[in-house]
Specification:
This protein has 78 residues and is an alpha+beta fold. It has one domain: Alpha-Beta Plaits, CATH 3.30.70. The chain contains 3 helices and 3 strands; from the N terminus they run βαββαα. Strands 1-3-2 form a 3-stranded antiparallel beta sheet. The longest helix has 19 residues.
């Protein structure tokens, strides 16, 4: 099954996590079911002057394309 990364980058970790959580809630609401997330990866650089936190979710590509929603809609039309 193909997977695709979804990335959230910010200069502080709580903000990156909040943005990720908001996106997951919105995607779940749109999809009508939880998004299939295989892994979560956090990369960071906390050097003075340019800190960043890069949060990546590896998500099922079919979920991101709306396949479960399309299947449900097609079943409801029949």
């Amino acid at each position: 099954m193909p997977y695709r990364p979804v990335q959230f980058r910010d200069d502080d970790l709580p903000t990156a996590l909040e943005r990720c959580a908001h996106w997951l809630r919105s995607a779940q609401e749109w999809l009508g079911e939880p998004v299939d997330v295989v892994s979560i990866h956090l990369d960071y650089d906390d050097r003075e002057g340019a800190p960043y936190y890069d949060l990546k979710l590896l998500c099922n590509e079919e979920d991101l394309a709306g396949a479960p929603r399309a299947l449900r809609d097609a079943a409801n039309e029949s």
